[in-house]
Amino acid sequence: MSPVPASPPNAIVKPPVLERQQVRVESVGEHVLVHIGNSTLTLHYESALQISQWIRVRAKEAKRLAGDMSRHWHAIAVLDDASK
């Protein structure tokens, strides 16, 4: 009698939870469209502004918790004497 060949162990292979997706944001009238992969989220501009503020606040918090205390200054100047 020949030995029974060993069968490979049963394994459950899960697909990656997060995959790289193309992200794009555009405005159409008074709405903001957020495209992530094949999905589109449509927001009224007031809702988009609210969400952007939440993200900004949490990003600043995460930056601080990561120990990054650098500041980046951006300035816009109005030059009255630019032609002189």
Q: Quick summary of this structure?
A:
The chain has 84 residues and is an alpha+beta fold. Helices cover 25% and strands 21% of the residues.
**Count of helix runs:** 1
**What percent strand?**
15-25%
Topology, number of strands: 3
Distance N to C terminus? 103 Å
Strand order of the largest sheet: 1-2-3
Poorly predicted spans: none
Structural class: alpha+beta
Q: Given the C-alpha coordinates, what overall shape results?
A: extended
For the largest beta-sheet, the strand count, sense and barrel status come to: 3 strands, antiparallel
Secondary-structure element series: EEEH
Write the layout of secondary structure elements.
Elements: E1 23-28, E2 31-36, E3 39-44, H1 45-65
Antiparallel strand pairs: 1-2, 2-3
Description of the structure:
The chain is α+β, with helices and mostly antiparallel strands and 84 residues long. The chain has a 3-stranded antiparallel sheet with strand order 1-2-3. The chain is built from 1 helix and 3 strands, in the order βββα. 25% of the residues lie in helices and 21% in strands.
Salient structural properties:
84 residues; alpha+beta; three-stranded antiparallel β-sheet; extended
